Amino acid sequence: MTVLQEASTEEADQAPPAPVDTRGRVAELRDLKDRARSGPSERATEAQHAKGKLTARERIALLLDEDSFSEVEPLRRHRATGFGLEAKKPHTDGVVTGWGTVHGRTVFVYAHDFRIFGGALGEAHAQKIHKIMDMAIAAGAPLVSLNDGAGARIQEGVTALAGYGGIFQRNTRASGVIPQISVMLGPCAGGAAYSPALTDFVFMVRETSQMFITGPDVVKAVTGEQISQNGLGGADVHAEVSGVAHFAYDDEQTCLEEVRYLLSLLPQNNRETPPAVPTDDPVDRRCEALLDLVPADGNRPYDMRKVIEELVDDGQFMEVHERWATNVICALARMDGQVVGLIANQPQSLAGVLDIEASEKSARFVQMCDAFNIPLLTLLDVPGFLPGVDQEHGGIIRHGAKLLYAYCNATVPRIQLILRKAYGGAYIVMDSRSVGADLSYAWPTNEIAVMGAEGAANVIFRRQIAAADDPEAMRVRMVKEYKSELMHPYYAAERGLVDDVIDPAETRAVLIRSLAMLRTKHADLPSRKHGNPPM
C-alpha cells in the first residue's frame, strides 16, 4: 500500500461520528482542518525531511510573518476518476494557497505539497493556483510560488495540461503589474518550467531543486549524452551557465530569508513606489576611498562592487544574477533610504565589455526596474562590445539592441555616471544622454570616445605613421595628439553630453540630490498596444 493509499484509509477510519449540534459541527471542522494541515501521514513527512526538504507549510511559515497566513480552499479535493484516483482524494489536492504578510505587507503564495501526488498538478490543483493568482492581481500584491512538483498529473490527462496553460496566461497578465517570484525547492520538469521563466525572479536551492524541459533519461535516449539531474538543470547550472536562476543558495532557510529581503526592496505593484526606510548613512558622506579605488590607468582592473559599496547606504546591495554574465553587475540597493537599481560594468571580468549574455542580463533588469518604478543608476567603465565571430554569429547586434530598447523605453529616473572608459556603441547603449538619460555625470578620469586612442590614431593617422622615419615614435605622438584633442575629460561636458564633471568623493551626495529631484519625474510613452522589442 502506498503512502497516499494509506493516508486515504486513515482518513476514512478516523472520520468522526456525525455531530448533532453546532458545537459538534465546529469540532468536526477543527478536526478536518487539523488533518488537512498535518498532511497525508507522518511517513510522508519523514520522507520529505529525509530528502533535506521542508514541507509546504513549513516553507510558508519561513516566508511569511509569524501567524499571518490565511489559507484559501484548504478542503479542496479533486473530482477525477480512473486509475485509482477515486480512492485517493486528500484535502488541498497537493497545493497550499493563501496570503499573508512579509515585513507587514500583503503577499500571496502557493506551495506545492510533494507529499500529495508528488506535488503533481491536476485540475483542482490548477484551479486553486489560478484563483490565488487572480486574487494577487486584483489586490495588487506580490505573488510567490514555492515549487516542488512532479509536473502534470498523468492520470488526469489533458485537463492537467490545460491547468498549466491557465497559469502561463496569468503569469503573462501579471507581468509588470505585480512582482512575481518563483522559488524552486524541488523538481520542475517539462512545461512546468515555463511558469518560473515567465516570472521576475527565480530562486533555487543547491542539490534539491532542478529545472529542465527534458530530463536526463530523455537526453540520453535522444542524444546519447549521460548526465545527472543536477548536472542538467541544477541550481549552479542555472545560476552560472543558462542564466535561468537569478539566485542560488545552499539551504531552504537562507533562500526564503533572501526572498523576504528582495520583497522589502520591491513595491506592491506597478502603481506604487518601493518602500523607503530610514537610514543613518549621511547623504553628504564623502567617499574618499573612491579616489584610490579606481585607477586612472584605464588598463588596470578593479572591483566595481567596491565602488557600489561606497555609494549605497551602509554598503549593502542585493546583486541579481551574480554568477551569470559577470562582466556586468545588476543590483538593487538603497540611497538615502530609497531603492535604486544599479547597472555597472565590471572591469574584473572581460574588462567590463558588453557581450550577448551581459546585454540580455542588463536589458531584463532595466525592464524590471522600469516596470516597478525603481530609478536606474548606470555606472560606466566599458571598452566596447566583445569582438569575435561567435559573438557576431550569435547575434550580438540583436541582443545588444535589447539593452538599447530597454533603456530607450524606460520612463523612470535615469542617471548615468562615467567612471573611466566609455567607448563606441557601448557608451551609447548604456544610457547615454542621447538615448534619454535624465542626467549624465563623469569623473575627471573619464574617456568618452568612439574608440580607444591607440586604435583611433592607427586609423586616422595611418598614412602619416607609415610614411614616418620612425613609425613607432610617430604613432605615440599621434596617440597623444588624439587624446589631447578628443579624449580629454571635459570634451563631452563642453558639448553638453555630460551634465557635470564631479569629484569622485562627492559622488554619493550628487547622486542622492539628483535622485531626489527626479522623484516626481513623469514621462509618457506614445500610445500603442505594445512595442516590438528585438528578440
TrEMBL record:
InterPro entries, A to Z: AccD/PCCB, AcCoA_carboxyl_beta, ClpP/crotonase-like_dom_sf, COA_CT_C, COA_CT_N
Origin species: Peterkaempfera bronchialis
Region called Disordered, residue ranges: 1-52
Molecular-function GO terms, alphabetical: propionyl-CoA carboxylase activity
Domain of life where this protein originates: Bacteria
Biased composition (Basic and acidic residues): 22-37, 43-52
Protein name from the UniProt record: Acyl-CoA carboxylase subunit beta
Gene3D superfamilies named among the record's database cross-references: 2-enoyl-CoA Hydratase, Chain A, domain 1 (3.90.226.10)
Domain (CoA carboxyltransferase C-terminal) ranges: 282-517
Cellular component terms (Gene Ontology): acetyl-CoA carboxylase complex
Domain named CoA carboxyltransferase N-terminal: residues: 19-278
One Pfam family in the UniProt entry: Carboxyl_trans
